[in-house]
Write a structure and sequence with these properties.
By secondary structure, this protein is of the alpha+beta class. It has 2 helices and 5 strands. A hairpin with a 4-residue loop joins strand 3 and strand 4. The termini are far apart.
Amino acid sequence: MSDSITINLNEEVRVRLKPDGIRLYCEHYEFRCVPQIDADGWTRIQLWRLMMIFGSHVCLAGDPPFEMAVVLDRPAPKAALVAKRPPSCCPICGSRNFSPGYVADGVRRVDICNACGNTILAEVE
């Protein structure tokens, strides 16, 4: 019997976007938002969203729009979580229309802006 792992497509992964990846991301959102890249060059994105935006650009012997090492961080141990108040508006487009958030990793809650699709992280207590 082989070891297996179950991955929820709503989980966030970390990727390092190449210049073409940044361009494709911006084009996908019609230049209404840009990927948030941390100091180490990583962008956090839900796995399903990564597949939706970049799936047609990843092929055998092609030049992928991101480095092929995709990181799925191990979630923190679950504890009693109470979400803090959601953000008042999207930092990208200013919309106040969010889909209900879910706890992604035991530390942050993920809200999705319904106007631009931006992923907004809120800490949980």
